[in-house]
Amino acid sequence: MRIAIQGEKGSFSEAAALHLSPAARMRYCASFAEAFQALMDARVDRALMPIENSLAGAVGENYDWLRIHPVHIQAELRLRIRHHLIVPPGQSARAIRRVLSHPVALQQCRDFLLRHPRWQAEAYYDTAGSVKHLMRERPPATAAIAGEPAARAYGARILYRGIEDNPQNYTRFVLLGRSPSPVAHGNKISIVFITANRPGALFKALAAFALRAIDLTRIESRPIAGKPWEYSFYLDFRGNLRDPGICNALRHLDEMSEVLKVLGCYKEAEKIYQ
């Protein structure tokens, strides 16, 4: 299977993809937009995208791409995120003046960085990419924050392990395809809808689920480009598209919505990968 991910070899996205498909061939993309486009152009079979983090919240850009592109969620995976301070072999902590990493990783290691006021944190496009840059370009007095696979991939050394502020740091990834997966074994559904901009519209939309005792597991709103103060709403809930109650709820919601799109019916992740 060819899978597009955002990031470099050794990234958390690659680790998640290999848990889902150990023999997968990766297409490394510099941006989420590039990974989505690779899927749309059939240059890959699937794309794997982070959709939310337990500390940083939603990856808003990917929610937007899910609504815009004709893609389907086929599976999900939860990965434990562990950050390390990584340096070239032989470099000491005393020599560090700059620390590179993805902005979210820097945010998640804020307390650790505050304990080293002489270090200047600088945003980079990818955690593993910062280690790749560190080892290829060898910028002076520079370290990176990334996962252990990145250190292994580029021959770097882990100086400090587990530097994230909170150990309860998990990222949920979704596996995307150009067609929906079979719904027979699905027990979780993701949708996006847009209601008319009038009082009580969202309350009535959610009532379609509450009246049928459907278990909502997540709700997320995103602004609609070009329509200030108007939003699309993303819902995750438990169930199967063959369940009569689910079908009636979606039919009810469709009557009240200007847009309704089922993003996928898939099996809920049962474990957290380390």
Provide the gyration radius in Å. Answer: 21 Å
* Shape estimate: elongated
What is the CATH architecture assignment of the largest domain?
Answer: 3-Layer(aba) Sandwich
User: How many independent structural domains?
Assistant: 3
Give a quick account of the main beta sheet: strands, pairing sense, barrel closure.
Answer: 7 strands, mixed
The unreliable regions are: none
Percent of residues in beta strands? Answer: 35-45%
Description:
This protein has helices at 12-20, 32-40, 60-68, 103-108, 110-114, 127-137, 148-154, 201-210, 244-256; strands at residues 2-6, 25-29, 46-53, 57-58, 72-80, 84-87, 98-101, 120-123, 142-146, 157-160, 170-177, 188-195, 216-224, 227-238, 257-266, 272-273. With 274 residues, it is an alpha/beta fold. The two termini are 22 Å apart.
Q: What topology does this entry show?
A:
Layout (H helix, E strand, L loop, with lengths): L1 E5 L5 H9 L4 E5 L2 H9 L5 E8 L3 E2 L1 H9 L3 E9 L3 E4 L10 E4 L1 H6 L1 H5 L5 E4 L3 H11 L4 E5 L1 H7 L2 E4 L9 E8 L10 E8 L5 H10 L5 E9 L2 E12 L5 H13 E10 L5 E2 L1
Parallel strand pairs: 1-2, 1-3, 5-16, 7-8, 7-9
Antiparallel strand pairs: 3-4, 3-11, 5-11, 6-9, 6-10, 12-14, 12-15, 13-14
Features:
seven-stranded mixed β-sheet; 274 residues; D-Maltodextrin-Binding Protein, domain 2; single chain
Compact description:
The protein has 274 residues and is of the alpha/beta class. The chain is 29% helix and 36% strand.
